[in-house]
Amino acid sequence: MLEEQFPGLRTKVHGKPLVYLDNAATAQRPQVVLDAINDYYQNHNANIHRGVHSLSESATELYEQARVSMAQLINAPSEKDLIFVRGCTEGVNLVAQTFVRERVKAGDEILISHLEHHSNIVPWQILCEQTGAVLKVIPMNQEGELVLDDLDQLINNKTCFMSVVHVSNSLGTINPIKELVKAAHDKGVPVLVDGAQAAPHIKVDVQDLNCDFYTVSGHKMYGPTGSGVLYGKTEHLAAMPPYHGGGEMISKVTFDSTTYNAVPAKFEAGTPNIAGGIGLGAAAEFLLSIGLDRIAARDQHLKAYTEAALNQVAGLRIIGNAAKKSPVFSFVIDGIHAHDIGTIIDHHGVAIRTGHHCTMPIFQYFNLAGTCRASLSFYNTEQDVDVLIESLNKAIAMFA
Questions:
Q1: CA distances from 340 to 170, 347, 394 (A)
Q2: Are residues 196 and 304 in the same domain?
Q3: Given 88, 128, 358, 372, which residue is catalytic?
Q4: pTM
Q5: Which residues of 105-122 are buried (b: 16+ CB within 10 A; e: fewer)?
Q6: Residue 283 sits in the same domain as residue 345
Q7: Does the residue 220 lie in any domain?
Q8: Looking at the structure, do residues 309 and 279 belong to the same domain, yes or no?
Q9: Which domain holds residue 274?
Q10: d(CA 57, CA 193)
Q11: Which of 49, 233, 335, 348 would you label with 99, given CA atoms 20 to 30 Å apart?
Q12: Would residue 267 count as lying in a domain?
């Protein structure tokens, strides 16, 4: 069984078996990822690139194979189109401060959506403050779906860039990315896609989506924290200036000038998170071995089971009911604060997230300070959901 490959799931909390339903924040790690990280530190611990001794060469081979594995996971045309980053947050900031900043001027518009995580809002606000550009927002409806009726007006001759989330971390909404990319490209607007929540749940094909950039966070897809990749079309990456300066991203340095290295090294200054990159590659290979279609089918089964169960809880209201969504459920319970719910059910071994989930504008729309959020992975079971429901009913009984 898949859950048996995740040693963290065997943890006990307050003497109860862990029911881990906080996967949208960070997922548990399979043994193969832990083994890959440990193997690097035990058997290949050396700095990568440029070294001619055996350990450096073997570490470099493992690190660069991870890039290949990630390219396979998202069907990138070449592994050279992938830059290792610390996660989606760094990926978005990198694109904002290199590709977009080079092109934006005062009065230009940057388009995002109402479903964005703060990491796909704040970098664009900073860029707007720096350049005089204007941030525009695709609205959403009560179901938590984007309203695209006026997309043709939102993407206009002032729009210089679009950045949109693939799957909402708060509501689970799966956005019609291919449609959004085509609408933007029809007017010559490049697009970045935040894929933090998509990569663990659905098959991602950047060539089919035809997006200009795509970001992935390792810790959401069963890899290490502080790891991830930014995919960019070859021509964009070649034209972009470097984001950081230092070793590895250069080919020649004098006190008068510096010649930059080729992509992707141009964007990877300094000693990288080598173990993290290797662990990320192991996570990609793990997902590929299971099959994203199989994972998506399991997700949809769990989504249906969980939704039906939550709807039986007295006073519980699910926030966001998009027609297409991943197994992420934000909910409130009448008369009980979300933090109280989270604290009480933690004593039953159930881990959920409470608060605004780094998506304050979403909950301002619903006139809520925050919600409880149960986010499931393919390693969760129907029994996990049953324990969640039982613990919620006990919490409600305490406040009755």
A1: 19, 11, 12
A2: no
A3: 358
A4: 0.96
A5: eeebbbbbbbbbbebbbb
A6: no
A7: yes
A8: no
A9: 32-289
A10: 34
A11: 49
A12: yes
